[in-house]
Design brief:
Helices cover 34% and strands 21% of the residues. The protein contains 16 helices and 19 strands. Residues 310-317 form the Cytosol aminopeptidase domain.
Length: 462
């Protein structure tokens, strides 16, 4: 797959993008032969509809692609990518400005339409390549596409090949590419260095899948940004074992880690002027004689005690120790990302990235950026009255309040206890696209990362 723009060549086929409002005017400006061909082909300018128009020699003279109307485009994340998927292989060059939409986002969608996860089976995405339109920073768009591909590849890879050690390797490879540093704390060293909850969750796994905390740092000047990503490489549920159907997609339970690594790749590739830290507690929540148990009380890095009422609510435990470490450094902005609760998926579905923050400036800037780059987010509340739901009788905190109410909110409140007084936001993402769409094949997908990237210049001095 090629997630890059095609070089400009003389044989690039002109591509005319026309929407419903502009179609008649465009058609009337064409030659009679083109008008007859379009009419005979019964072409309509609907999103994703394409047509090759032959010249006198029979070879294609130009291509035309529909761009629909505002309503139909609002239902497709990347309308231009719908055209890319429908066009035959070849190189295309936009002959007209887009009728609407952000050209950088639309060209990103075109590049992403080439993505396919082909590690285990030969397959490919769109083979239609685009010459970078004038005024677009090709290297920026290509860097974002490559970072999204990294996130997708990590999530799509089965747990047998993407355990804690493999996730560490992915972080080290990324660090080597961009001149970052990585420090990793593994196994029983987690206890010695005071990461008891990461150790407790991961200690039941096989020795070659031992728990670890991956700590990547990059940059020496500027504002400090710390990203914490949930790296549960497979989640059986522990002793509160999941039913088989609920375990089927648990290879994606490291989607938070995959997403922050993708965001880190964007930041480093674009050489943003900040100090970046990425913390990934990487574990497998397995079942063995050494598994942590319902009813156990764990003492966290921060000193808060946590009663375990469900071993399947393990993600917040490993994140808590990592957030406590992050808070000790007092970064200018702290963000956690995790495939944390089914409640978030039920509330907003797979398309939206729900997030929590107490900072109205962060929320306002993020939502404007998200709309601009077609990476939708939705704010959920840190609802203070629910604090009592995470406070059991025998410990400071409860990892799984009974009753099943407000599961995403109580999980976010739990995490906020470990973020201290930081400028903090938590994303409870799904990380999986269940239905194929233009530039978004079925499978792992980044959520919220591009919105955060677009928001950073207004959130932190760069």
């Amino acid at each position: 797959m090629s997630l890059t723009f095609a070089p400009a060549t003389a044989d690039a086929l002109p591509l005319h993008i026309v929407d419903k409002d502009g179609f008649d005017g465009w058609l009337s400006s064409q030659s009679p032969a083109i008008q007859r061909w379009v009419a005979a082909s019964d072409f309509k300018p609907v999103t994703g509809k394409t047509l090759l128009v032959p010249g006198t020699s029979g070879t294609p003279l130009l291509a035309v692609a529909g761009f629909g109307d505002a309503t139909s485009r609002g239902r497709v994340r990347f309308p231009l990518a719908a055209a890319a998927a429908a066009l035959p292989p070849g190189t295309y060059q936009l002959a007209l400005p887009l009728p609407a939409g952000d050209i950088e986002t639309e060209t990103l969608g075109w590049l992403l339409s080439s993505y396919a996860f082909d590690k285990y089976k030969k397959k490919s995405g769109s083979a239609a390549r685009l010459v970078c339109p004038p005024g677009i920073d090709a290297s920026r768009v290509e860097a974002i596409a490559a970072a999204e591909a990294l996130t997708r590849d990590l999530i799509n890879t089965p747990a047998a090949d993407m355990g804690p050690a493999a996730l560490e390797t992915a972080a080290r490879d990324l660090a080597e590419t961009h001149g970052a540093q990585v420090n990793v704390t593994r196994g029983d060293d987690l206890l010695h260095q005071n990461f008891p909850m990461i150790h407790a969750v991961g200690r039941a796994a096989a020795p070659n899948r031992a728990p670890r905390l991956i700590d990547l740092t990059w940059g020496n000047t500027g504002s400090s940004l710390t990203l914490v990503g949930k790296g549960v490489c497979f989640d059986t549920g522990g002793l509160n074992l999941k039913p088989g159907n609920s375990m089927a997609l648990m290879k994606k339970d490291m989607g938070g880690a995959a997403t922050v690594l993708g965001l880190a790749k964007m930041i480093m590739s674009l050489n943003l002027g900040l100090r970046l830290r990425v913390l990934i507690p990487a574990v497998e929540n397995a079942v063995s004689g050494d598994a942590f148990r319902p009813g156990d009380v764990l003492t966290s890095r921060k000193g808060l005690t946590v009663e375990i009422n469900n071993t399947d609510a393990e993600g917040r435990l490993v994140l808590a120790d990592a957030l406590a470490l992050a808070s000790e450094e007092n970064p200018d902005l702290l963000i956690s990302m995790a495939t944390l609760t089914g409640a978030a998926r039920v509330a907003v579905g797979p398309d939206l990235a729900p997030y929590f923050t107490d900072d109205p400036v962060f929320s306002s800037v993020l939502e404007q950026a998200a709309a601009h780059v077609a990476d939708p987010v939705w704010r959920l509340p840190f609802w203070e009255p629910y604090e009592r739901m995470i406070e059991p009788d025998i410990a400071d905190l409860d990892n799984a309040p009974s009753g099943g109410m407000a599961g995403s909110i109580t999980a976010a409140l739990f995490l906020r206890r470990f973020a201290s007084d930081q400028r903090y936001a938590h994303f409870d993402i799904y990380g999986w696209n269940p239905t194929a769409a233009p530039a978004r094949p079925k499978g792992g997908v980044g959520m919220g990362a591009r919105a955060i990237l677009a928001a950073l210049p207004k959130l932190l001095p760069l």
